[in-house]
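Internal ticket - ligand job 226, D-xylitol-5-phosphate:
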Amino acid sequence: MTVPPPIVAPSILAADFARLAEEVRAVEDAADWLHVDVMDNHFVPNLTIGLPVVQSLRAVTAMPFDVHLMIEDPRRWAPGYADAGAYNVTFHAEASDDPVALAKDLRSAGAKAGLAIDRDTPIEPYLDLLPSFDTLLIMTIKAGFGGQRFIPQLLEKVRTARQHVSAGHLELRIEVDGGIAADTIEQAAAAGADAFVAGTAVYGAADPAEAVRHLRALAERAAPGA
Ligand code: DX5
Ligand code: ZN
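stdout (structure tokens):
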């Protein structure tokens, strides 16, 4: 089983929102993607940031943006993030009645398309849809808040997805999000994840760039076949 080199995506949800540009620059050279958590106080109870913040950030860094939409009605809002220059736009399976159609919209707007699976959602009904996607985000917590404890049982979904991706020779990143830190990233990598979101573990560290490098090294070592 070959898994591509790992992507580490710091989540700015754990950054200081009053100094966002500086916080982005702190990880710019070390990280692969910048993970942006958009929450609408409807799909999840929390409320974070939206399109104007993404547009402003786009002007201050060349980092690829990995936008994670935890919102209702993604068909209405998601393409705007692609137009704003997001590299990857991920929306939730639970919020969409036609995920494949929205994936097409995102790709024609020039972005990668991502499908997110929340804690209580099984992966099996979505496996056949994966050829329409570039990223599969498997939550390792219940979506909505940073700083929660990683749920190792959810890695079963990562194993299932990795087998499916390998067997079908799909080009798809398998991303994990929630509670990823130095003490959890290796099990996620061993299960077959190849993109790792980390909020608290990066922005809670004294040296965020160093934290990213350390996470990547751990993920590389634990990857299947490494
Ligand atoms: C939560 C968000 C996560 C969050 C992760 O719903 O999707 O991206 O920022 O935060 P940590 O790494 O602190 O669990
Ligand atoms: Zn996220």
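Auto-summary: The mean pLDDT is 97. Strands lie at 7-10, 34-39, 65-70, 88-92, 112-117, 135-139, 173-177, 195-198.
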